[in-house]
Specification:
alpha/beta; 5-stranded mixed β-barrel; 5-stranded parallel sheet
Amino acid sequence: MTSHLSLSGLCAIITRQLNVPALRDVWVVAELSDVRQSGGHCYMELIEKNADTGQTVARLRGIIWAGTFARLHADFFSATGQRLSAGMKLLVRGTLSNHAAYGLSFVISAIDASFTLGEAERRRREILEHLKNEGVLDLNRTTQWPQVPWRIAIISAKGAAGYGDFMHQLTHNSSHLRFRTRLFEAVLQGDRTAPTVIAALDSIAADMDQWDCVVIIRGGGATSDLAAFDNYELALNVAQFPLPVIVGIGHERDVTVLDYVANMRVKTPTAAAEWLIARGDEALDHLRSLADDIARAATDIISGADKRLAYAESLLAVAPETAVQRAASQLQRCTMALAETGARRITPALERLDITQASLPGIIDTRLAREDERLNSRQTLLNALSPVATLKRGYTITRVNGKAATSVASLNVGTEIQTIFADGSIKSVTI
């Protein structure tokens, strides 16, 4: 019979083989997956992904026993502000162990918090550098604000404390400003943060002319939740969004990629509302200043008009009498001037008229005699040139069809012609 081992015997051999210095207290870089707690212990999967494809190339069960976990987690949170969660990259120290009932596992005894901080910062810097190379890093930060951003699209979780704080501050302002708002719901923690916020941005963009700005807000929470905002796709959408974006996610000292690409970053949702109210107050102050300027200008105009009216009223009592006297004096002057002018110009004209009247008969007779002489001369010339005078001298006129014939060549045989004499005419036919 072939010799064999029991499963427990095989596990015992594996355990003995693993009990070597090289597999004890070793530092390992790994990404956390499927992190859960039970009975004070922390169970997880340690994975490694291909940098190019993102596929998992190694997987090992990780354990932090309860006696160690409380201390490690407290120290890690104090240093990073984050809780151990899936997707986090860690540098951990531990010992490889094999249990007959639970299999192979890596028992963690220490965590290097500085590595996690550096890794998060490295990832953040990589995203920012990528956005810069694409030329979109500063796009949203350069978008222009309207004078009063009163139409506000809000991205938040319905019922979230941060959303409630924002709306309370916005609607209960001392200046009684009224803003138009609408909530575009999204999940603001965990793996669903990026896709749901991007979907909300898409909905806002579909009616972009209805809004002046976008506010992304959430209340306080675990610092580890902020990792969701260090997302390249989300940052790309915010950076390229055509409306100015305010980010207020409830952390003052922690900064995410989203804080770098948004038009404005504020500490809390309440601070976002306060900033918007301040913009409205500035507009009101400007309007009040304009109103004061208009009031002063109107007062000055009315005061000047009152002064001119008072002066006009003072003149009104004596103005008619003065005007009548002035007009009478002017009429008198015009009458005298007219008399003088008439006498100066009419008298010589009358004298010239008398002379002309006395000489008019002689002038008429002379003119008539001259015209009669001229008429007789023209009559004599007319008689001399008349065709009748020519006919009386023995000449005749030959007509064909009522027109004078000027050439024998124009006459054909048998043509009827009319010969005109001084004392009559005859008709004949050419042969």
